[in-house]
Amino acid sequence: MSTLSTFLFSLLLFASQPLILPTAADGRWQLLQKSIGISSMHMQLLKNDRVVMYDRTDFGPSTLPLASGKCHNDPTNTAVQVDCTAHSVEYDVLSNKFRALTVQSNVWCSSGGVMPDGKLVQTGGFSDGELRVRVFSPCESCDWHETPNGLAAKRWYATNHVLPDGRQIVVGGRGQFNYEFVPKNIAADTFKLHFLSETNEREVENNLYPFVFLNVDGNLFIFANNRAILLDYVNNKVVKTYPKIPGGEPRSYPSTGSAVLLPLKNLTAATIQAEVLVCGGAPKGSFVQALQGKFVKALDTCARISITDPKPKWVLETMPLARVMGDMVLLPNGKVLVINGARSGSAGWDLGRDPVLNPVLYMPDNEIESRFKILNPTNIPRMYHSTAVLLRDGRVLVGGSNPHAYYNFTGVLYPTELSLEAFYPGYLDAKFNNLRPTIVAPKSMSGIRYSKKLKIQVVITGEVTLNLLSVTMVSPAFNTHSFSMNQRLLVLGNDKVMASGKSTYNIEVMTPGSGNLAPAGFYLLFVVHQDIPSQGIWVHLK
């Protein structure tokens, strides 16, 4: 993207947005839409800077009508059998507008991810949607396409991850102690995973939406309840069993915490370290007690582990705010934003209390006692069924919150939320504009290959500290139920930096070495200077 086009993008972006008021605290909030017609329970950014969102088809009619003649017909629907309103939308980040999309089956509590070609593949759901595979292509007028029996097993509360070979693995789900793959061009069956039955607590579960990350060796780190394994999914073999988190408290749905794979660094080294951070959740028994009207304080700890160590151990850290049902978003500069959620209770219908309005920033490279920072609060509670994703301009899009079985706007503690907000991390403050890089080359949508030198040209108008220039790549995540599937950040570093004329610098980096480090697909590429990221550009890793 040229300097001029980047400048025009910025003008159009901010001209289309409501006014934001700056505050003295770190970070600020902006209300983008008072209502998009649905409650954003699931969210995915696509390569055209549009975000696909959806809730469920048995909430009852939404406030956003479908085009004439389009309706969802389900005789088993307990809310309405014929529904001519939307339960999915496409939000255009640039124009701050949205349009209705049509789903023909129930997408409630489903999972998904973006394939290497940029298409969103979404799997499972509830009732008539539990065996469905749905595909959404990023184009001006595209809509959902559904395959009725695309799955081998019913998937509800499952987790997806994109694999180095271009497929997605679908792990678990309610009553499903197994995994399978989509598309089914290699393996059409399910594969048993006893770990999921071992971590399942009777009548409570505490192991749904498992946290799944692709390790640098090509195996899958799978966390459920309070412990994890490393799975060789090709040979259906557990190759490592990790210890329980100290204290043994559950971190998986409905005792919902969140997790991220921390930024991968030193990618050309002989040995690459991979670390996982799990934050928040609810103490054991919280779900049952919440059903009885007793709301237990959420967990205020994070647990961090180097999953590549020969003898890995969890290290506990204390958050400044207890949090259940929080979301964790990797920011372009490698820091982690912890956002949304409640201070007490559990995931489930009306089982959370005391919204956590303040996001918290986690700085993984700081000393352990100085890694957390409380940020500026929103005024909109984001409880059960909230979402958050990173945008190309560095903002974080926040939506959803519906702790009710239907749309419910009055007479309840936390009404169904149809709004969209943007959180502006502190690095977007205008005082950093002279330090902020602007990417001149390559152009957005450029293709890049594995293990190749990549040259990036940037403009920085202020004083530059060359050793504090770095390049990062972020894979946009599928976010639902406090977990961002396929979220991944790679630090490409800066192998060589040279000044090239006034305020212009050329940076040379090496692209990732294999699909184990970065599965093929579309990534956001950023240049970071003194922790201040540029606006991202899309690159296609092939």
UniProtKB/TrEMBL annotation:
Signal peptide stretch: 1-27
Principal location class: secreted
Pfam family, one: GO-like_E_set
Domain of life, per lineage: Eukaryota
Keywords: Oxidoreductase, Secreted, Signal
Residues annotated as domain Glyoxal oxidase N-terminal: 41-427
Protein name, per record: Aldehyde oxidase GLOX
Lineage, uppermost ranks: Eukaryota, Viridiplantae, Streptophyta, Embryophyta, Tracheophyta
